[in-house]
Amino acid sequence: EAKAQGQGRFSHFHRELQEEASHRSRMAMELRHALVEKQFRLYYQPIVALDSGEVLKAEALLRWEHPRLGLIGGGDFIPVAEQAGSIHAIGQWVFEEAANQVARWDRAGCPPIQLGINRSPVEFRRPDNALDAWTTQLAQLGLCGSRFVVEITEGLLVEQTPVVRGQLEQLGRIGSGLALDDFGTGYSSLSYLRKFDVDFLKIDRSFVQGLAPGSEDLALCEAMIVMAEKLGIKVIAEGIETEQQRDLLAAAGCHFGQGYWFGRPMPAEAFTRRLLQGKGVVSA
Ligand code: C2E
Ligand code: MG
Ligand code: MG
Ligand code: MG
């Protein structure tokens, strides 16, 4: 009987795997049309200076207005896009859209925010002229590269291939900043921090979630902040959802915060209103 049960569980597991695989391949196919069908949206989440409460930065986060599934977040389709290769065209669209939006905010008289753009390792590994095209576009819009921060994960710096290195150097020449996303969750070898010009560490949300006075997570956040400070790197804490988390991080000397406490990712128009309405923390 135990054996029969085991087989049942196996075939159940097997069926789930098959369903997952067919879900992914269907999605990969749909992704091919998503760009021409104009189904992608960029949402913007405020990044706040913890001392003044001012919105000085934002992160651009990709959403897919899926005809069947509704609005879905990056985590649910970017891995598929990476595997299917459509991430290159999508990433190109993200950079273009982000640059156009920053130019629109400038024209609307908004304070000059700096915008974080996520770029996946897959995009960095392909030797192409994606960054050349972007540079040309920035020049056409009259925007400095320094208005943007490219968010990468630690793993990319560990790779150290010439193609990746070349693109990181190109970003440096444009004047764009570099942020290490999800910091603390990946490689714990920190020697790459010496070799690359990193401007921001984004403390991963998993450290912020459990923040309480005297907690291990607080000790870890404090250690990351002290280390960054000594290296001349600014710290952004991700996933701040409560006032206590905000207060503990501010007291630890963390420079910037991002999370639902300050605002969820929102469409450009809503973010424009937020920017024009000025300083101040508007939560919920
Ligand atoms: P990420 O870059 O670490 O982005 C932060 C994620 O945390 C976002 O999820 C954001 O909505 C979510 N978040 C922000 N504040 C809070 C909070 O207080 N609590 C909780 N629970 N979550 C919070 P999202 O938008 O689903 O994006 C997931 C991931 O997809 C991103 O993680 C990033 O790695 C990737 N991604 C998003 N947009 C792009 C893009 O344009 N290009 C590429 N290559 N990747 C992207
Ligand atoms: Mg990010
Ligand atoms: Mg720099
Ligand atoms: Mg992150």
Q: Care to give the gist of this entry?
A:
With 284 residues, the chain is an alpha/beta fold. It has helices spanning 2-34, 74-84, 87-107, 121-125, 130-141, 154-159, 162-174, 192-195, 205-209, 216-230, 243-251, 268-276; strands at 40-49, 55-66, 70-73, 114-118, 148-153, 177-183, 200-203, 234-237, 256-258. β2 and β3 form a beta hairpin.
Task: Give a description of the structure.
The chain is α/β, with parallel strands linked by helices. The chain has helices at residues 2-34, 74-84, 87-107, 121-125, 130-141, 154-159, 162-174, 192-195, 205-209, 216-230, 243-251, 268-276, and strands at 40-49, 55-66, 70-73, 114-118, 148-153, 177-183, 200-203, 234-237, 256-258. Strands 1-2-4-5-6-7-8-9 form an eight-stranded mixed β-barrel, surrounded by five helices. The termini are far apart. The model is unreliable at 279-284 (pLDDT under 50). The chain binds ligand C2E and magnesium ion (3 copies). Residues 181-182, 202, 238 line the site of one magnesium ion.
Largest sheet: 8 strands, mixed, barrel
How many strand segments?
A: 9
How much strand?
15-25%
Run of helices and strands: HEEEHHEHHEHHEHEHHEHEH
How many helices in DSSP terms? 12
User: What is the approximate shape?
Assistant: globular
- Which range best describes the helical content: under 10%, 10-25%, 25-40%, 40-55%, 55-70% or over 70%? 40-55%
Structural class: alpha/beta
CA-CA gap between termini:
53 Å
Low-confidence blocks of residues: 279-284
| Strand numbers in spatial order across the main sheet | 1-2-4-5-6-7-8-9
What hetero molecules are bound to the protein chains? ligand C2E, magnesium ion
Kindly report the average pLDDT value.
Answer: 92
Quaternary state, please? Answer: single chain
Rounded radius of gyration (Å): 20 Å
